[in-house]
Structure formats: C-alpha cells, structure tokens
Amino acid sequence: MQMFRQIFLCFGLLVMATLTVSSTAHATGQTLELVQKRGHLKCGVSQGLPGFSTPDDRGSWTGIDVDFCKAMAAAIFNDASKVKFTPLSAKERFTAIQSGEVDIIARNTTWSMHRDTALGVDFPVINYYDGQGFMVRRDLGIKSALELDGATLCTNQGTTTELNAADYFRSNAMQYEIVAFEKADESVAAYNSGRCDAYTTDHSALYAQKLKLTDPKAHIVLPEVISKEPLGPLVRQGDSAWNDLVRWTHYASLTAEELGVTSKNLKKMSRSSNPAIRRLFGLDGSFGANLGLSKQWAVQIIGSVGNYGEIFERNLGVKTPLGIKRGANALWTQGGLQYAPPIR
Amino acid sequence: MSAQTWSPKPARPAPANTVGFVGWARENLFATKLDTALTLLCVTLIVYTLEVVFGWAIIDASFSGEDRKACLKQVQGACWPFIDAKLGQFIYGRYPEMERWRVDWVFAIGALGLVPLLMPKVGWKRANVIFMLGFYPLFCFFMLTGGVFGLTPVDTTDWGGLLVTLVVAITGIVGSLPLGILLALGRRSELPIVRALCVAFIEIFRGVPLITVLFMASVMLPLFLPDGVNFDKLVRCLIGVALFSSAYMAEVVRGGLQAIPKGQYEAAAALGLGYWKTTRLIILPQALKLVIPGIVNTFIGLFKDTTLVLIVGLFDLLGIVQLHFTDSSWATPETHITGYAFAAFVFWVFCFAMSRYSIFMENHLSTDRDKES
Description:
heterodimer, A: D-Maltodextrin-Binding Protein, domain 2, D-Maltodextrin-Binding Protein, domain 2, 2 domains, B: mainly alpha, MetI-like fold
C-alpha cells in the first residue's frame, strides 16, 4: 500500500513538473526567435477546405490560409517555401497551438469571444469576413432571402448554422422547415435532388458546394449574410511580438493593395516618391526592425504571394472555379471591411 | 459354333435434360416453382445491378481530361480523370516526388520477401523470417525517413495515402500477433501478478474505442510532454494501433488455447517438457492453427481501422481521397462517388487477399483429425 502511494505521488509530481515546464516555456513569448532558429514556420491548416487550404494535384497546399502562412515565411525568411503545413482536425486545433506543435493556425477559424477569452489563444487579425447565406434554384425567381417565406431548408445537423437560420426566419416572421443532415455531402445531395428549396451554410462553403451540383449555373447564392463569421489566423496567448507580426503581415498585404502595389509592379513602385509606398518598402523608417525583421519585410511578402487582392483572386476570386466576389472582403475604400491601420 | 461371349450393350446416354448445363440448371435452379421464381428474381437483380455499375463505371464515365470540365457531361458516370490526376497523391501522399523511388523500393522489397514467405513450398523459411523481421523494418525505416546514407530526410507529416495505410496496418499486424500471444499466455498464467497485469491491459484496451486511444495519443499526450519534446504523430499512432489490436488478438489466441484438450498438456509433461517447450512445441502450433480465421478476422478489422488515423491528422488512403475532394478544380457531382469507389476497391483487394490466404493456410495446415468426413 505504502509503495503504491509513493508511486502515485511520484507520478503526480512528474505530471505537474512537466506541466509547469511547458507552461513557462509558452509564456516567455519568443516565438519569432524559436521560428528563426528552427529555420521554418510550422503552420496548422484545415483538412481540406476549397479556396482556404486544399492540396493540388501535386500535393502542394494552396488557398488563402496557406498563402497567409507563406506570407509570414516570406516576411521572416525571405523564402515563402519555408513553411511546414500540418493539417489539423477541428477538434485538435486548439491543443496543437497550445502544445507548441504549430506556431500559427490559419484554419478558417471563426473569431468568437469564447475562443478568444477561454482557450488561451489570440486572434490577431481577420483575413476573411464570412457569414451564413442561402443558395436557391435560379428558376425560383427569388432575389432576396426575405422572399424565402415557407421554404424548406437543407443544412447540417447540430451546427450553429441551424440556429442562425432559425433566428433569421423568426425575426423576420417567416415560416420555414429545416431538413438537417449529418454531413455536408448529404445535405448538398438532398438539395441537388430537389428535396429542399434552399441550402444554407457559410458563404464561402456555399460557393464550394455549388460546384458539386449537377448544373451549378442553375443555382444562385442570395446576397443576404445572416451571421458573422470573421475568419482569421490564431496564435498562442502571451506573445505580443508574434501577435504583431501576424497582424502586420496581413496589414502589409492590405496596404499594398490600397496603394496599388502588386507582385508584378514591385520594381516600378520601388522608385515611387509616394511616402506611404516608401514606408511600406522600408525605404523610410524602421518598421521592419521594430517587428524583428529586415527592412524589406513587406516587399518580401508582396514579392512572393502578392497583395491581398491578388491572394483573394488567385484562390477564391471570380476567375477560379469558386467564383466568389470580394463583397465584405473588398478594401474599405471600395465598400468592404478590409481596413489596415497606417504604416507610419 | 463359335463361342459367344456376352457383352453388354453400350449404355444409352442419359436423358438430354439431365446432363450438361441444362441438367444442372434443371436440378439446381428450376427444380420447383419456388426455385424458379427465386432464380428469375436473382437474375433480374444481377442484370440490373451490373447494368447500373457498368453504365456508371464505363459507358457514361469520363476517361481523360485535365480538370473538372472533363466530368461535367449531361449524364455523367464515374470521373476517372480525377483518380488519374491524383493517383500519385493517393499512393504516396505528399511524399516528395523526387523521393518516391524510395517508397517504390520499400514496396518492391517487401513484396519480394513476403511472397516466398507466404508460400509453404518455398524453403529458406528461417532466413526469410530473419530478413523480414530483422532487416526489412530497419531498411524501411531508413529508406522512408531518410537522413542517413545521403538520403534527404522526409518528415512523416508528408507521408500519406496507401503508404500510411500499409505502414500502420503492417506494423499493427506484425506487432499485435506476438504481443497478443504473450498476453493470452499471461492471462492463463498461474502467476497472479502477471495474470492481473495481462487482464487489466486487455480489458482496458478492449473497453475503449480505437478512436479514443488515438485521440488520447494525439491530443492529451502533447499537453503532458515538456515543450519541444514532441514525438512523432505517426509513431504515436503506430503504438496505439499495435497495443489496441494486441488486446483483441490476445482474446482470439486465448480461445485457441482453451480448445486444446488437457491430455495434450499431460502428454507433454509425461515427455518431460517444461512450460516453454510445451507451449512452443505442443500447444501453440495447435492453438494458432485452430484460430486462423479469428486471427485473420482481426487483421482485416485492423486494416480497415487504419482509416481512423484521420482523426489525428494523418492522411491514410481514405483520408487523402477525401482531402482531395476539396480541390475546387475537381469539384463535380461525381468526384466523391468516384473517389469512394476507388478507395473501396483498394481496401477490398487487400482484405479479400488476406481472406483467401487464410482459407488456403487452413487447408494446408489441416490434419485428417480436423476434417469432418
């Protein structure tokens, strides 16, 4: 008996010791240093979401979230290929960032108060404004979600999607009937076969699912956005310097778009006399050094992945199969929500 | 008068409707009204199914193309160009294309070692076993992970597809059989501590779902490890799968041990054999032979359970097929059906091969005593 107690005690102490060790290591907040020493960035992505992180025929990761990590690598190493992508399931993502398995997660994660305050993570920035919407058959002749009174909706079981739709219909005093399925593929198949009048999920996913329909052109996505799903990268709590680096990586690509700097006209723009461009290019000021990077950090980002507009159009835009319009993700100057604080 | 010998008339042929295909069909397919009805029903079902499958897989299918446009006909069957474009991914995962020859070598040498090992007639069994259990795992390890002999290191996070399925399944199979036998012997042991430990191990691992074991290994373990000590996800999975299936294997083997009559033990004791010799020479050969179907059943179950590693972010064959459904340049209504059909076919080939081999071994090992006459 005595022996068992001792063994338990030892084991308990061991666990506590390791926990203390790991928590102190996380709190010191030298992620940038760690990453630089290691020589590559460890980036957690999704297990496949069209336009955000998905493998191409050769297995390289592509997508807007993937490009975010590549931009980070470009800023730190001047080499966008120095990233290792770890696909994470929705359940393990928060553990992966807390345990230090990855340095950053760019995994179409909605920034919510609970996640920000209770899970030990920080959301530095929003790189995609998503929200729930509806898809209907074109021949229904509907132009707005407010005309959906009495509609049957296909959606996924047990997600907030179902609740959002219920709220929306109730607050607009409309009748509806929900047909919920276990998996997205099943709901899409049901909608495709005419079981429902409308299919509802996040806007970006609506466009992706549309491609799986027999005749995608016969369907339209209604303009209404009925919920807020701000998606962004997340990092461990307690390292403000790393937080800043993530934030300004995104802002640099936004600022570049605002100033008309693209990956194609970098050379020409570097001779510009516009003070804002000169600051972005590191010709004036010491913005790179304050982040712990080189002067050229923003140029490295834009040179390797392009500005935000280029990233968006390459992965999600109207010329890709997804064909998503900028909408809320347009620059603030064009009626969108993407707004970068000034670099000065 | 010459002597006449009696010779029988040659027998007349049997009535035409009792021999050949017609006879066989009359007897087996159309003997009674009920039989006839059932036969017709089954034939209709078979023809209908074949027609649907054939139409989908061949007649309406697309066979060539560069992207989703190839698979967007009005009446669309299977989208085979998707499989064609992604085949490299399905087999090797994100293993670097320049290094794929290493995986090919591992597959080839594995096949070269395994085939003679599985054929009872081929000699050199002892050397072959030493090769496959001693040299081959080391060869696989260095070849696949690299970092020595000038081979570029390849992170296990880049492994995927069939490669991961086979690595997990084969490690599980090779690890679980000896471990399972030891656990089964331990559970029947007369030493109380050994028995208690074995019972506890078996009951704990049989009592939780595999998905829980994998999840614990991938999500809970890292929280307890100090920073920087992050041992490989794939290794965590391999250990989890091997421990889990050894618990099942132990119970299967125990079934065989219990079927050995007491007389066998007594006879062995009379010959002066000790515990280990009795077990090795008398008990295990008979017990294992009895439970071949059970063992192979566990192997097949294990092979299919490898698909669960997706939960910890490893992409086995099924996982990587599903992952590539999200490639929007291939998104069509038929893509996922084609992908699932392909994955199902590959799994079926492996499981069916295992099942046939087990039947072959049963027949090969059966002694007359087992045969029912």
